[in-house]
């Protein structure tokens, strides 16, 4: 089975480039040969996050990847082709939600969530998430970009924590395991102010959209949150500057949610940071980062989704 067909079968509906027409059979064979034989270049991800974000170098001379729907780009080729990025999600914003605003909407969800019964907990916790990110290499020949879809599975127990990771491009056979050291220590606070101060010790920029995005990702990929802790997280998001209701949405895992967004250029390019919330449970379903005005040296059109996370499992187990 060709690499491209194998990956499309693995990715299924979560394929970030679903619907992109693949190249010819000859192009696929050529790409597979390049990816197999080429020297490993240095790739730069834009932007980067901290926790559980170590990535191996990806062997690719020409950044292309029919496997994920990207367009082949060889050094010196003209015109320059864009790397494929996921289509934007479809947001549906009701007029009353727009008038009421994000702070009121998030507070309403938080009040409902904090009354939910606490789970009995357990000695083990299970977290699983999928992420897609754009990597870019820039040299004298230009900028070349590649998409890197990954899945992570983290199990914590009294014996320790094991993180299983595999590249969706390469399938379960690429899985690796490592000991997962927690970067967030102590109990998670149950108030917005307490949570903000606790996260600030690791992410000083917590008060802005970029820092909040990084800190929230670290939190939900390390801890299973109780209803009160989820409510605190929602109130923290409500305090972001100029946060707005983006609208109702079906996320990339097929789940309904409500999206909230805030814009910032703190990462170097004007970017919209979107948080998708389950309005019933208060769980964070996912995050999205979208370039809104300029791509800089990144080899993508504008607007473009340059990263997303889908949080699939978050539970305590006996």
Short recap of the structure:
The chain has 318 residues and is an alpha+beta fold. It has seven helices and ten strands. The chain has two domains: 3-68, no CATH class; 95-317, no CATH class.
Any overview of this molecule?
The chain is an alpha+beta fold. Helix content is 23%, strand content 29%. It has helices spanning 3-11, 25-37, 95-100, 102-113, 192-200, 209-220, 227-238; strands at residues 44-45, 124-139, 142-157, 160-167, 176-179, 244-250, 256-264, 271-277, 284-291, 304-317. Strands 1, 2, 3, 4, 5, 6, 7, 8, 9 and 10 form a 10-stranded antiparallel sheet that branches. Strand 6 (244-250) and strand 7 form a beta hairpin. Helix 4 packs antiparallel against helix 7 (227-238) and helix 5 packs across helix 7 (227-238). The longest helix is centred in the first third of the chain and has 13 residues, at 25-37. It is globular. It starts with a helix and ends with a strand. Residues 1-80 have low confidence and may be disordered.
């Amino acid at each position: 089975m060709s690499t491209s067909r194998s990956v499309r079968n693995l990715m299924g509906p979560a394929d970030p480039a679903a619907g992109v027409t693949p190249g010819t059979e000859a192009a696929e064979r050529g790409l597979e040969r390049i990816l197999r034989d080429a020297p490993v270049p240095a790739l730069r991800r834009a932007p980067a996050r901290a926790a559980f974000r170590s990535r191996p170098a990806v062997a690719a001379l020409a950044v292309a990847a029919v496997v994920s729907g990207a367009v082949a780009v060889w050094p010196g080729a003209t015109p320059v082709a864009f790397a494929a990025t996921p289509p934007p999600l479809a947001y549906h914003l009701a007029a009353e939600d727009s008038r009421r605003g994000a702070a009121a909407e998030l507070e309403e969800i938080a009040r409902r969530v904090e009354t939910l019964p606490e789970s009995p907990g357990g000695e083990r916790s299970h977290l699983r998430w999928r992420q897609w990110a754009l990597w870019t290499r820039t040299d004298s020949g230009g900028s070349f970009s590649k998409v890197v879809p990954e899945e992570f599975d983290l199990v914590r127990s009294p014996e320790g924590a094991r993180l299983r990771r595999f590249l969706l491009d390469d399938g379960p056979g690429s899985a690796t395991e490592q000991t997962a050291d927690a970067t967030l220590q102590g109990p998670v606070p149950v108030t917005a102010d307490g949570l903000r101060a606790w996260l600030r010790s690791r992410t000083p920029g917590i008060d802005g959209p970029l820092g909040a995005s990084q800190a929230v990702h670290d939190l939900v990929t390390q801890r299973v949150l109780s209803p009160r802790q989820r409510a605190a997280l929602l109130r923290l998001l409500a305090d972001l500057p100029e946060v707005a209701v983006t609208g109702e949405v079906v996320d990339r895992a097929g789940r309904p949610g409500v999206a909230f967004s805030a814009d910032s250029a703190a990462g170097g390019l004007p970017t919209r940071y979107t948080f998708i919330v389950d309005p019933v449970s208060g769980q964070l379903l996912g995050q999205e980062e979208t370039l809104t005005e300029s791509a800089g040296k990144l080899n993508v059109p504008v607007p473009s989704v340059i990263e997303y996370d889908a949080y699939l499992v978050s539970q305590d187990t006996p």
